[in-house]
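SEQUENCE-TO-STRUCTURE ENTRY
===========================
What this section holds: a protein sequence and its matching fold, both as plain text.
Question of interest: how does this chain fold, as expressed in C-alpha cells?
***
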Amino acid sequence: MIRRALLACALCLIGLQAVAATRIKDIVAVQGVRANQLVGYGLVVGLNGTGDTLRNAPFTEQSLQSMLDRMGINVRNSKGRTRNVAAVIVTAELQAFTGRGARIDVTVSSLGDATSLQGGSLVLTPLTGADNQIYAVAQGPLAVTGFAQTGKAETVTQGVPTTGRIPNGGLVEREAPGKLADETVLVFELRNPDFNTAVNIADAVNRYTQQRYGIKVAKENDLRTVAMARPFFLSPARFIAEVGELVVQADAPARVVIDERTGTIVIGKDVQISTVAVAHGNLTVRVTEMPKVSQPLPFSRGETVVTPDTQIEVDQKGANLAIIRGTNLQTLVAGLNRIGLKPPGIIAILQAIKSAGALQADLVVQ
C-alpha cells in the first residue's frame, strides 16, 4: 500500500511538471519571421444611397473622376451627386514567406461620411508596404456585420456598419524580402522576456543537440533573445520544427496587475507579502437636506421664511485589523479573502502595502 501511494504521488508530480512545462514554439518567435502590414486607398461602389456626400467629401469626388478618366470617361466639367460611392482605407497583413498568387484577408474602413458599407464592392485597390512597393491588390464584395437604419424620428444602429472585411479578397503580387534559408544563425525572441526562461531554453536546446548531433548550438544573449547556430546539414525549417517541440519551464517575474476602472486584479504565483497588519474600513457619510417652511400666525406681521434642516449620518463598517502574510499565492489570496473586501478595497490595500515596502513584486496599475 505504501509503495502504491508513493507511486501515485510520483505520477502526480510528473503530471504537474508536464502541465507546467511549455513548448518552446509557444513562448518564442523567430527573429525576422514576422508579418508585414499593407495599406491602400480605394473606392467602394454599389451602395444603396449610404455612401459619401460628394460635396462634404471632395476626395471621394476626385477619386471617382480619376477612376472614370482612366476608363476613358470624361466627367471633369460635371458635378456628380451620387451617394453610392465611398472612399475607404484598405488594410491587410502579409504573413512571412507568403508567395505570389496567395490570397489574404483585407479590412475595409470608411474614410468619408458614409453611413454604411453594406452591399458594396471594393474596386481594384493596390496595397503598398512601408517601402512604397505594391505587394498585393484587393477587390471584391464586402462582408459587413453591422447595420444602420434611419427614419424620420429614430435611428437604429448595431455594430459598426462603416467597416467590413473581404475574406481572401487580397491577391499577393510580390513576396516580402528575406529568405529563411539564408540564415545560418537563428535568434529566438521571448514573448515574455526573462533571464531564467532564456537560460532554460538554451539548456534544453543544447541537451537535445548534444544527444542527437553531438554539438551544442544555443547561447542565451540576454533576457529577450537566444541565439542558435543551426547545423549546416539541417534546413532552417526542420531545425526550428525540432527545437520548437522541446518543453521548458517558463518563468516570469513576480507581478501584480490591477485595473481600477473594471476592478480586475491579477496576482502572479510568485508574489509574496511580508508580514503586515492591515485595517480597512468603509466610511459612509450621508448628508440630507430637508428645508422647512415657517409660516407666521394669522393677522400677524411676520414673514414666511424657509428654515434649513440638515441631517448627517456617519456609518463605518468592516474596520477590522488583520495580519496578512503571503508566502505563496494560495496563502495570499486566503489572507485577503479573510478580511472580506471587494476588489476596490483589495486594490487600495495592495497599493498601500506596496508603499509600505511589504509587497515583494512589481505593481502595475492600468
Q: What stands out?
A: Residues 1-19 have pLDDT under 50 and may be disordered. The chain has six helices and 22 strands.
